[in-house]
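Internal tracking record. Fields below are filled automatically when a chain is submitted to the structure queue. Please do not edit lines marked as system-generated. If the sequence contains nonstandard residues, flag them in the REMARKS field before resubmitting.
Queue: standard
Priority: normal
Entity type: single polypeptide chain
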Amino acid sequence: IASLSTAQIGALTWNQLNGLQVNKVAAFTSAQISQLTSAQIAGITSDGLNTFSTSEMASLTAAQLAGLRPTQIAGLSTANIGALTATQIASFTPEQISGITPKNIGNLSLAVIASLTPEQIFKMTNLQIAGLTSTQLNQMSSKQIAGIKPESIGFIAADKISALTTQQLADLTA
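SYSTEM-GENERATED OUTPUT FOLLOWS
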């Protein structure tokens, strides 16, 4: 695998990549990974994606990440989710955001949380909202807080609610 040329990497299909064993995906070089298209990234299993180093994950472009399915995102390791930058996460569709596990939501950096749109936050599940830390919630803007669905408010722990500012509380219940 590591000896495949750029042209050969570009010719790989979704089915071929989806059928690769994890150890074969792990053999991709950083240069090869940088040549993968969004359709090709979509063909790699979560286990395969988890063989990418954190620096390789951080180097994926928004165009490449566009192919990720929520189920692939749900299978990403905490380290690989944590390696994604604010710019990368900001490029996620609301549906892709819904794939981040509640555990991994709580591990997102404050810069990543700050990059989330109200639409992305609205698409979060109740458990994802519950997975946000007090610090993450406290750093959210008024528009972001307003993006939390009314039915999700009940999933926010009392200690997290008590850490909100008066303005955030007003935005939460608006």
